[in-house]
Amino acid sequence: MNEEKEIKQRIVQKADELFRKFGFSKVTMEEISYELGISKKTLYKYFSNKEHVLKELIHTHKCEVDAFIEGLMSRQNITFIEKLKEFMNFIAKQAAKLEEPMVHDLMKSHPAIWCDIEEFRSKKAHKHLSKLIEDGIEDGIFRSDINNDVVVAAYVASIQSLLNPKVLAKLPVSADQAFRDILKILFEGIFTAAGRENYKSI
Question: CB–CB of 39/53 below 8 Å?
Answer without folding.
Answer: no
